[in-house]
Amino acid sequence: MTHPAPQEPHAFQEHRETFRIGRDLPVRRLGYGTVHLTGPGCWGARGTDADATALLRRAVELGVTLVDTADNYGPDVAEERVAAALHPYADGLVIATKGGVVRDSAEAWHIEGRPERLRAMCEASLRRLRLDRIDLYQLHRFDPEVAVAEQLGALWELRDAGKIRHVGLDSVTAEQLRAALDLDIVPIASVQNRYNLLDRAAEPLLKLCEAHGIAFLPWFPLGNGSLAGHPVCAEIAAAHGATPSQIALAWLLHHSPVLCPTPGTGSPAHLEENLGAARVRLTANDMSRLDALTIRP
């Protein structure tokens, strides 16, 4: 198997708006994450079904083409709400979901990577999402009790059977991604890890993704809200007629061409604010100031 060639070099002035996951699945780089459609601890539902439907449909109206969800959000709730709101899916709308984590309560969850369980979880997601094939299916965690080759092999079998189009990994290190690539069992189209302006511990992983043309979907792209009040973000935001949150998201879009943030929210106003970050054009000086901010170890 040949790994994808690197994406062409990116200059932040160009501010490309799209990325091709797996080289053949174009998405707008700012998407929408569905974790806030569920309650605290990803348990149960947040708000009403009508509110969730309106929010998801508004996201698509505003141009979102990548909706990120997971079977354990709720559990099941987020996937069911996505299907209720958006099925039949518009052409070009990519639904990404995850399996491999079982949520037992709002306070407890466990990893489940046995091949038979991964296959069952994928089949259940297909039913909830009303899909014949999932465009991007991400392994939510590697199970330390199951050989990596067995877990990747299960995903390859699902891909070979036409159940999923592309495979991704969630919460991995650069070393784990490199090992998965070296095993060469199934192409890796994406990773999903914690990463934001002030939390760049995953920078080596990001560089590896860049080298292989792998999409990087950062979670906590706004630091769980902490970046909204950052003074440097606020100062740059004022110069652009933007908000600090928009600057933090714009930095991600300018920092690397493979970063595809999917910020989540349960608020229509915050949704529009987040997606407005795609219109912000940061200058070289803006980027220099933001790049220099203290990075959380």
Task: Write a brief structural summary.
The protein has helices at 49-61, 77-86, 115-129, 148-160, 174-183, 203-212, 231-240, 244-255, 268-275, 284-291; strands at 18-21, 25-28, 32-33, 66-68, 94-99, 101-103, 109-111, 134-139, 164-170, 188-194, 215-219. By secondary structure, it is an alpha/beta fold. Helix 3 (115-129) runs parallel beside helix 4 (148-160).
Which descriptors apply to this entry?
single chain; 297 residues; two-stranded antiparallel sheet
Lateral strand order in the biggest sheet? 3-4-5-8-9-10-11
Describe the largest sheet: 7 strands, parallel
Which band does the percent of strand residues land in? 15-25%
Distance between the termini: 36 Å
What is the molecular shape? globular
Q: Level of helix content?
A: 25-40%
- For the CA atoms, what is the radius of gyration? 18 Å
Question: What is the H/E order?
Answer: EEEHEHEEEHEHEHEHEHHHH
The CATH architecture would be: Alpha-Beta Barrel
Question: Could you characterize what this model shows?
Answer:
By secondary structure, the chain is of the alpha/beta class. The chain has helices at 49-61, 77-86, 115-129, 148-160, 174-183, 203-212, 231-240, 244-255, 268-275, 284-291; strands at residues 18-21, 25-28, 32-33, 66-68, 94-99, 101-103, 109-111, 134-139, 164-170, 188-194, 215-219. It has one domain: NADP-dependent oxidoreductase domain (TIM Barrel), CATH 3.20.20.100. It is built from ten helices and eleven strands. The strands form three sheets. It has a seven-stranded parallel beta sheet, with helices on one face. Helix 2 links the parallel strand 4 and strand 5.
